[in-house]
Amino acid sequence: MSNNGTLSYPEELKQKFLETEDINYRDGTIVTTSEIWKYVTDVAPKKYPYAYDLDYNNRLRRSEDVEYLSGIKVNYMTLSLRDLLLKAHDKGIPLIHVIGGQIMDAYYAAGGIAFRNALVSQMSRSTQEGASLRKIAIYEQELLEKGNKTFSYELCGPALRQRANFDGHIVPIDLIAPYQCMRCSDLARMIESYRDKFPSVSIDVPIVEYENKEWAVDYLTSGLRGLTKKVSNLSGKKITDKDILEEIKLENKVRKIAREIHDIWWSAKVPPTNSIDFGEVAQLAIDFKADPVAALGVLKEIKEEVKGRVKHSIKGKGLADDPARLYIVGMGAGNRARIDKMGGVMVGTDQAWSPISVHVKETGDPHENIARATLTLPFEQPVERRGELEAELSKRSRADGVVITLAWGCNYTSASVRVIADIIKERTGLPTNIFETNPGVEGAEQLENRIEAFVEMLN
Amino acid sequence: MVLETLKKIEEAVKNRPQELAEARKKGEKVVGWFNYNIPEEIIHALGLIPVRLGTGGNDKLVEIGSRYISEKNCVYTRELVGLFEQNKDPYIINSDLVAIDATCLQTYKVGELIKYYFKVNTLILPIPRNFYQPEAHEYFEKELEFFTQKLEEFAGNKLDTNKLAESIKLYKNIRKAVKDLYKYQAADKSPIKWREVFGVVHAGNYLDREQYLSLLQELLKELKEKHGKPEIGSLNGDVRIFLAGSIIPPRDTKLINIIEEVGGRIVGDDLWSGLNSFLDLNIKEPSIKGVAEAYINRVPHAAQHYPLSLETDRRLNNMKQLIGEFKAQGVIYHTLRFCDPFTFNANETHDVFKKEDIPFLEIHTEYSGSDVEAIRTRTGAFLELIKNKNI
Ligand code: SF4
Ligand code: SF4
């Protein structure tokens, strides 16, 4: 049972919420504000009680900032994700599992829906209707153990869970199409283990160590052509360059607005949203909660609301008065509500920032444009360049400290963290700490305890 | 009876650091390299001296390396970092440039770290992950051109086709000689042990390559004169083991010792620090294109993941073929902790050999001595199983 009550949206907010925009989805579906309100106040609390449990140890909880109205829409998109994906799947839209920090333009342009580990887990969890927080924790632990058994206990937690999800057909995936790149040691191996069993495409993102190598662009371009061909074969959607350029324009808008929101947020005297709500901005811009059109609409509203809060110096709910600002490098910091409770606030993660930081050229050969943009993604750069970009971003976000996290079993990231930490320290003088985490609930708790101690130290 | 040529090889290796130091004094340049796909032919043809770096089995170095690279990286890479930090290894001290190919990305990461922390002059050769696609071949050729251009700048001269042709021939002969040598160690009443052959392969990491070839040929001649042609006829009641999996670099003798102590006889391997580097590398023309094609077409390393069908997986097929050739009766598959490329393949490889009815044992380990007894027990039991199976 929660030690901090249950999330509920007060009835007196309803009218104000109803006056905001409906959500327009890509397939033409419009979800009205009143439908959203009903869902988040009536349907979802019964289906997904764990998401409403405001226990500070609950990594899956939604934000308690009920007056942040666009946040309610983000919650709706998150909690209704499974319904959206199942509906799309029924219509023959291929669901594609991806990993590797990529931008999603190519997948969506070809008529697919791409989603990373976080959304696969989200979807898997939502098969457990009515489950309490405790039950969900057990469910996820069991998935880890299943993954361990069928593969290797040295696989990272996210990949272990995905393995079990796919083996158990818990999440209906039509294609696994990860980027092979420097961040991810495990997904390549996982798709290898699926050979003869599961359709896959691997997009090879070459290392660009010295300078802009045109042949690397050509190679990646051809990989992306192979990808769109494969996805359009699955989706049955004939794809032209014009379609892809249109998608690029749309996703550029999403990336741009997300960057603008970050700049507004960073410029504020007091943080206008709490860590959960701020984290969702980047999340919405990189995964779109599976619908870029809907994501763009909601991001527009977020921008206006954040602007308004900054103007009136409104602080996000749950934050301390002058919170220690944490910039997160790596695989994420687990429970954001706990950071806030301890007197901190998360001011950005490089993992989420990386894909939204690029602008893809909107004319010419779209595959080549995506390839060029991909090769500049900060997270995927050789370590010294990446370290410098991290240092820049921690300054830009006015961080007080930098937390570097790495998941157990994520071997290439693990090899980079010390250099990154040293470069950040050298360039910014900021306190920097590296935290390793084991998969599973206990591992996450350990990480959160350590972050808590770090926040205390900063305060 | 100890083979005379083995003593000579040992002596030559002892003298090699001194030779390298003197060559450098005279203005020659040494290129140290590690990982799997650096084409030594090009280094050699440019008049540079190639040496292959890296050792294993030293827990102290692993600990030092862990201060820079994570404990979640394989011990081999941690020891590599430790070696560079200590800067005492004669081959590291004598390397003017360190070339690293990105076959295994953990090793590539070592390249990044030693450049940043120890200011090592490094040169990277990226390797395509999707090596089975034609576009990857084109890409690799371009990368190798770029790599060669950087080496040319370093060497101060251009790659000459005739010299490249000579180097290709030299390496081809070395590869042939090593393959012939492997036949002797697998033969009945073998005059040379696998362990000694493995040592000879490692000597080739350091020695002048012309000298190495002539020593190899001398050794083969000595073997032939004293023992005739190598043949595997009766199995002599030996428990013939094939060693596969993660790298076993020079000085890492833990598993080898155990297998021998419990009565196993290693008769072959598909290790990258062993026989595999000498297989299936046919350079058809003395050009960068020719070299690139040959290297990308060699038996792939486990880090080059292969998502296509199991039947066409050359790494597995190569293993099967070698096991047949050496008449091995069981496979010991060595995986280092956090060596994803080999560890994650272990279950699947096991299944493949189960179907072939070849006993298979995975030993998951690192360099510390804490698991020696456990490995001894498991290996002993495994050998018993093979013996009983063959009764
Ligand atoms: S945690 Fe690392 S290894 Fe695992 S899926 Fe993510 S990027 Fe890949
Ligand atoms: S292949 Fe395995 S043992 Fe070799 S460097 Fe890579 S991770 Fe280490």
Overview of the molecule:
- The complex is a heterodimer of chains A (459) and B (391).
- Chain A is an alpha/beta fold.
- Chain A has one domain.
- Chain A has 20 helices and 11 strands.
- In chain A, the strands form 4 sheets. Chain A has a 4-stranded parallel β-sheet, with helices on both faces. Chain A has a 3-stranded parallel β-sheet with strand order 4-3-5. In chain A, strands 1-2 form a two-stranded antiparallel sheet.
- In chain A, β1 and β2 form a beta hairpin.
- The two termini of chain A are 30 Å apart.
- The model of chain A has no long low-confidence stretch (mean pLDDT 91).
- Chain B is α/β, with parallel strands linked by helices.
- Chain B has a domain of 139 residues: Rossmann fold (3-Layer(aba) Sandwich).
- Chain B has 16 helices and 8 strands.
- The longest helix of chain B is centred in the middle third of the chain and has 26 residues.
- In chain B, strands 2-1-3-4 form a 4-stranded parallel β-sheet, with helices on both faces. A 4-stranded parallel β-sheet of chain B has the order 6-5-7-8, with helices on both faces.
- Bound molecules: iron/sulfur cluster (2 copies).
As a percent range, the share of helical residues of chain B equals 40-55%
Unreliably modeled segments of chain B: none
The biggest sheet of chain A, with number of strands, parallel, antiparallel or mixed sense and barrel status, is: 4 strands, parallel
Distance between the termini of chain A: 30 Å
Integer-rounded radius of gyration of chain B:
20 Å
Count of the domains of chain A: 1
Number of helices of chain A: 20
> What is the H-and-E element order of chain B?
HEHEHHHEHEHHHHEHEHHEHHEH
Structural class of chain A: alpha/beta
- Largest interchain contact: A-B, 50 and 47 residues
How much of the sequence lies in strands of chain B comes to 5-15%
Count of individual beta strands of chain B? 8
